[in-house]
Amino acid sequence: MSTSPDAAASPSPRLSVLDLVPVRTGQTSPQAVHASLDLVRLADRLGLERYWFAEHHNMAAVAASTPPVMIAAAASVTERIRVGSGGVMLPNHAPLVVAEQFAALEAIAPGRVDLGLGRAPGSDPVVTQLLRITGPTADVDRFPQHVTDILALMSPQGAQLRLTSGQVYDVHATPAAESTPTVWLLGSSDYSARLAAELGLPYVFANHFSGQGIDEVLALYREGYRASEAHPEPRTFLTANVVVAETAEEAHARALPQLRMMARLRSGQALSALETVEEAQATPLDALSEQTIEAMRSRWIIGTPDDAAAELRRLADRHSVDEVMVVPVAASRADEPLDATPGRTRTLELLVGALG
Prior knowledge:
Strand order of the largest sheet: 1-2-3-4-7-8-9-11
Structural class: alpha/beta
Oligomer: single chain
């Protein structure tokens, strides 16, 4: 695909986006999806590296439940940015289905598709059981085998099965693949890092979810890496929750609804649609939730463009990565349009401007 004529030069470090397709108070899923597709168009114009969609189920504040559908929509409205999953939660799906979906996406947008795979279910135990009894899923204990199966199925050579009769049976995710998606393993512990190193695959540390142990995990990945034909050297980046506004006060105000939702999630409280800034400011939390919020706030990047850019550069330098995938978690104000996310839009615009 050709580069958009108004695309900006890539910032340094390179920036990417992870989108959960947030749903705010009073907003419908179609409106939330519309806002996210506007955001991916913006990311494409700004010169960002990639745009990934998450997989979460049965959450009132999140509309990202089917990454392949969102990726296809994003590919259709962009020209150069890579689009992908962050990630497909493999235990919820049959490996052949995942391989076929992403091989088809690669045929739609050749050279622009990333398949990020995660080992967690991305849902509560009830929904996990519902997925298992209503459709094909994968055994979480066979995660390494299923990753290698997907790699083989999506390759131009395909995979071979040996039937009980002894006959060899060829299986291809698409009948005539010319290229394959880039497969990434995602995680916030050493399990996926070790597996990615063993298989010679790129790895992403989910720093936006858990910043614990990042140095140890990245060291395990890099030191244990086994070169593969597709990836001779280890490739890694990390994620970060980011809110940028013209003033620090506005940035912290727009970060508050997401901080409050994460505090409720970690304490097992019932979740609702994402609050507006005004709702979050008007509703007090208990002392434990406030402590949780303060601990999270110190790990997020929240502030003015220059301050946020400096902190993002420090994060990239500290962990020796040349790319950071931001989760723009700026909430909306009550009087802002339901089919747009001005806070997330300004976060990307201001951050790219400050990073040059």
